Every structure is written in C-alpha cells, then in structure tokens.
TrEMBL record:
The keyword Acyltransferase applies. Keywords: Acyltransferase, Cell shape, Cell wall biogenesis/degradation, Peptidoglycan synthesis, Transferase. This is Methicillin resistance protein. It comes from the Bacteria. Gene3D superfamilies: 3.40.630.30. The keyword Cell wall biogenesis/degradation applies. InterPro entries: Acyl_CoA_acyltransferase, FEMABX, PG_Glycine_Bridge_Synth. Belongs to the FemABX family.
C-alpha cells in the first residue's frame, strides 16, 4: 500500500477516531487542549484513494531557550501496527516531525504483547519464587506484537525506560482491564473475588450512594484528590487541570468525561473520573477520604461505574496502570491487589519508544529528565 501523510484538521481527525471501535483518549484531538503546555498537531495517513487510514495526535514540548521540540504521541499513533509495511507508515512521520523542528520522537504503540488472567496473577502473588508479573506464564500472547517490536528496533527506535503505574506524563506499560464484551453484569459480578463481593454488599447495607457529578462538583473532587495525594505521597494536579480536561473533552463529545461521587450520610467520601472513547472506558483518576473507609465507598463506586460502562455497550473497562511487582513490600503492590479482585486481567503493552532525530539534544534531554 502506498501511503501519504499530512497535517489534518481536528474535524478530519475526530471523524477518523469516530469510525473506529475505540482509540486511546490521549489520541483524540481534544487531548491537545488538555495538555495546554504542549503545542499540538493532528496527522493523517491516506491511501491511494485519498481515504484516511490512520491518525495521530502529536504533542510538541519546546526545549528551554531553543526552537527544538520533543514530539510525543501518547498511546499512538492510531495506525495499523500489524501492517507488513510498518516502516512505510513511520518513516514519513519521522521526516515530517523533523521538518517541524523535533529533535526526538516518543510514541506509545497501543499494542498489547501479553495478558494474565486473575487466577494466574493470584498464583504468582502466592508463589514466593515469583517477584514480577513477567515471571508468571502469560495466559495469552500476541506473537505479532513481538514482530512489531523487532521492526521498531531495526528501524532505529529505542525502547523507553521501564515505566511505573502511569503517574504524571509517562504512560503505563502494564494496565489492568475488565473485559465486558459478550459478558452480562451477572458474569462480571461473579468474576469478583469474595472480598470485592462482600465489600459491595457492605457498602449497600451501609447506605453508600453513588451519584454522577457535574463540572460544579470538581472542587469537591479536588478536596478528596488532595487528601489522597498526601496519603499516597504523590504530587496532585491542580483543580485547573481537571476543569480544563472537563471543558475540552466534553466540548468534543458531551459524554467523553464523567465524574462519580460516592456519598455516605450525605458526605462525599470517594470520587472518580471516567473517560469514554467508543467501546473503551477508563477509570482515570480516583480519590477517597481518610475516614469512613469501612463502608467501602470505592468498591461501590467502581461497581456503579462498571454497570454504566456495560450499559454504554463498552467492550472493556480499563482500570489503567499497575506496577509489575508482585511483592507485598513494593509501594504499588496494593494497587494490583485491589484491581485483581475484580477478576479482570493484566495487560502488558509494548511500552514507549524513542527515536533520536538529533542524538546530542536527545542525550541532553535524557540527562535533564534524570535530574528532575
């Protein structure tokens, strides 16, 4: 297939995304408005008939004092990654980005390489010999993903550093997902472990109510989120970020971003944001108070969000990042333990890849990032 690549309008980009079963929320045009500190561009790939067959949202971050940029395609571009002529898709992209002043390109192919079901993960946690998810035999392998990886290396792309659970601007390599396609809510509920089912029932008995929030509820969300940040020792994003996110994403599609609030005796004790692109639904950010944890508001909220995702016809509910350590001493272990109780599966993506267009500037950026 002979392909051409050019800058496309937001409308063309969005039309292509809407023609797909799903795509990453970081590859919709409005995500560029969320990332206000980056310059953005939409790219389109076209076949010989002039039909759009791929798209990519590029975020450009300028180097201090120099008109050179890091070009970043988070969880993208949205192309046929298993195409035999992958180089013909990526080579023109690199040439275009170089012309735009990029000194380095970072991308995250949305390609899953391995999956582990809940039973395999639980067995791994219970086995003292097993330290990491990668030590557990995968329940499912995608052989074509290994071919993609080999092609990228041959083209000069370099594997990024091992990522954590996806906090900040680095995207997670390991995520946890609950498949919903061809499953009833009863199937999903049966997939929960005993503790999850008990906690959902406990929340119900305690009178926990989960409601949909609006833009006006974002300050309430922020209070809970900042409490969570102190407890879990991470730097919270400011309220302005979530307000911008809400306006940008819901201007593009009125149901792109949702807010859920769990209340007990009228008090908000947990909250979460949810993102929707086609059949893929993400639990994006979560927060909870330090008190009333015994009434299990987070379990109740996740169950409500799952029910709503299923009602939307979603084929997957994505709980986002997990670490790959299965040792209870690891600071991210609680995250995988909480998520594995849903009976879903862990998925390993190909991770993020870099292409240094200017090796000197790329190295300088590496040194700068390592000292931050």
């Amino acid at each position: 297939m002979s392909l051409t690549l050019r800058t496309i309008s937001r409308e063309e980009h969005l039309a292509y995304i809407r023609s797909l079963p799903a795509a990453s929320h970081m590859q919709v045009p409005a995500w560029g408005d969320v990332k206000a500190e980056w310059r953005t561009e939409s790219l389109g790939w076209f076949d010989t008939s002039g039909v759009c067959v791929g798209a990519g949202l590029v975020l450009y971050r300028q180097l201090p004092k120099v008109k050179r940029y890091l070009a970043y395609l988070p969880e993208g571009p949205v192309i046929n990654w298993f195409a035999p002529n992958l180089e013909e898709w990526l080579r023109p992209m690199l040439a275009h980005l170089k012309k735009q002043g990029a000194f380095s390109v970072k991308m995250g192919p949305p390609v899953v390489i391995r999956r582990w079901n809940a039973a395999a993960i639980k067995a791994g946690i219970q086995n003292p010999e097993v330290k990491r998810l990668r030590d557990v035999e995968a329940s499912e392998l995608e052989p074509r993903a290994f071919e993609v990886s080999d092609k990228l290396r041959r083209m000069g792309w370099q594997q990024g550093e091992e990522e954590g659970a996806g906090f900040g601007d680095v995207q997670p390599r390991y995520v946890f997902q609950i498949p919903l396609k061809d499953r009833s809510l009863e199937d999903v509920h049966k997939g929960f472990n005993q503790l999850w089912r008990r906690n959902i029932k406990k929340a119900e008995k305690a009178g926990v109510e989960v409601v949909r929030g609006s833009y006006d509820d974002l300050p309430l969300w922020q209070e809970l989120y900042e409490v969570t940040a102190v407890r879990d020792k991470f730097r919270p994003r400011p309220l302005a970020y979530f307000e911008r996110m809400w306006k940008a994403l819901n201007s593009e599609d009125p149901d792109r971003m949702r807010l859920y609030i769990a209340k007990h005796e009228g008090e908000a004790v947990a909250a979460a944001t949810m993102l929707i692109v086609g059949g893929h639904v993400w639990y994006s950010y979560g927060a909870s108070a330090n008190h009333k944890r015994e009434v299990r508001p987070s379990n109740a909220m996740q169950w409500r969000m799952l029910q709503d995702a299923q009602a939307l016809g979603a084929h997957v509910y994505d709980l986002r990042g997990i670490g790959d350590s299965l040792e209870d001493t690891d600071h991210l272990f609680g995250l995988i333990q909480f998520k594995v109780g849903t009976g879903g599966e862990a998925a390993e993506y190909l991770g993020e890849w870099d292409f240094p267009l200017n090796k000197l500037l790329h190295k300088a950026l590496d040194i700068y990032m390592s000292r931050r």
